[in-house]
Design a protein that fits this description.
Distance between the termini: 52 Å
Shape: elongated
Helix content: 25-40%
Number of domains: 2
Structural class: alpha+beta
Largest sheet: 8 strands, mixed
């Protein structure tokens, strides 16, 4: 969410951000509503002041004219409140849609085709035999079972078995150890969340069709049904950020660095027909995520963006897998993103790099929605800046590991850094 004062004074900049992000938000209508909202608030305050004055007069002496005026004022306040509520609802709805202003160096374009490669590492592996994809490898070695997964869970269901399951957890545990050594504190939170968590983090209203809503949110001990909508989180970030909602931190507490380790759930409603085979696009997966809350300083926040990106890069370098970093285009960023990188790892069966990590700077756009502030050493309060990064998500990363480490005899070598966690060096 942007500051309405900023929008009033910089409407053309905001309109340009809407255009660059290929969104449809009527900024002129928002400003009209803002003006009408302020007028109605002032009108209501004036009417209440008059009502208070009449009430004080009536306490001392009741007369017919004052009684009639009190009734009239009460009705006018009621009518004004109805108008204000209607304007407020539309105003808040539009405010939630206003995007963040993208960084000046953000490539402008409608989607991932406009992303810019900023770094590449490693050599693309060459095989002197016909390679298999991860599903062929997994079924042959009896470590992946898609058929049983679909039977039990439906479309995009899967089972990881034996060494495949061990490798999955080894990757997650390795990433978890990496992020703890980098100074991030573990924060394990709920994956069932209230609607405000997904709204304030920016996943609603834009990606509401991607979320799973719980049809039966449960009952209290007295049997009363819990009526508030409850959702499964699609990533670990919203819960981590929501922990700090409505808090006023001290500047010396910043930066706050936390990491989450949780299951994630996505309906993939907007990806019909995409990546229907294998483990790339799933309804449920595990994720290690990192979040930074820092001072309202663009330079400092961008330094954290680079730091988090390098942590994910180090993991891929430790795994000795070729990857590249792309800076996301304006149309390939979420509404709240100021600057964003994707890291794409080489996947042999696809014969291309594919996204495995995502690193984002949201400046104060997210903190305003969550009302996360800090008090400076001068005693002034500011909205904080928030950032998030995928340390590692599995089983998507398994695709790259299984395919890049496959051998001619159909076996799969385990990356050296994972062997202490798996207890074996080879799957065969």
């Amino acid at each position: 969410m942007l500051d309405i004062n900023f929008i009033r004074g910089n409407s053309e900049i905001v309109k340009e951000a809407v255009r660059k992000k290929y969104m449809k938000v009527d900024i002129d209508r928002l400003l009209e509503l803002d003006k009408e909202r302020r007028r109605l608030i002032q009108e209501e305050e004036s009417l209440r002041a008059q009502q208070k004055h009449i009430s004080e007069k009536l306490i001392k002496e009741k007369n017919k004219d004052d009684i009639e005026e009190a009734k009239s004022l009460k009705e006018k306040i009621k009518e004004t409140k109805i108008l204000l509520n209607a304007v407020e609802d539309e105003y808040q709805g539009l405010m939630l849609l206003v995007p963040n202003i993208p960084a000046e160096d953000t490539p402008v374009g409608p989607d991932e085709t406009a992303n810019r490669v900023v770094f590449e590492w490693g050599e693309i592996p060459k095989f002197d035999f016909g390679i298999k994809n991860h599903i062929q490898l997994g079924e042959k070695l009896d470590i992946i079972d898609i058929e049983a997964g679909v039977k039990v869970s439906g479309f995009r269901g899967y089972y990881l078995k034996k060494e495949g399951a061990a490798l999955h957890f080894a990757l997650l545990w390795y990433a978890y150890q990496k992020i703890l050594k980098a100074g991030f504190q573990l924060l394990v939170g709920p994956t069932l969340v209230k609607e405000f968590v997904l709204t304030d983090s920016g996943y609603f209203p834009f990606g509401k069709e991607e979320a799973y809503q719980i049809g039966n949110p449960g009952k209290l001990a007295d049997g009363k049904t819990l009526g508030e909508p409850t959702y499964l989180t699609g990533t670990s970030e919203p819960t981590l950020i929501a922990y700090f909602a409505d808090k006023v931190l001290n500047e010396n507490e910043l930066p706050i660095r936390v990491c989450g380790f949780s299951p994630c759930y996505r309906s993939e409603a907007g990806s019909y027909g995409k990546d229907t085979q294998g483990l790339y696009r799933l309804h449920e997966f595990m994720k290690v995520e990192q979040v930074v809350i820092c001072k309202a300083d663009t330079e400092e926040s961008n330094q954290w963006l680079e730091t988090m990106r390098h942590i994910s890069e180090e993991i891929l370098q430790d795994l000795k897998m070729s990857y590249r970093v792309v800076q996301n285009s304006s149309g390939d960023m979420g509404a709240g993103k100021y600057k964003m990188y994707d890291i794409e790892t080489w996947m042999p069966s696809r014969n291309r790099y594919s996204e495995t990590h995502s690193d984002s700077n949201l400046t104060d756009w997210q903190a305003r929605r969550f009302n996360i502030k800090y008090r400076s050493s001068q005693g002034k309060t500011h909205f904080a800046y928030t950032l998030n990064n995928t340390v590692l998500a599995s089983p998507r990363i398994l695709i790259a590991v299984l395919e890049n480490y496959q051998q001619k005899d159909g076996s799969i070598l385990v990356p050296e850094v994972l062997r202490e966690y798996t207890g074996f060096e080879k799957i065969g």
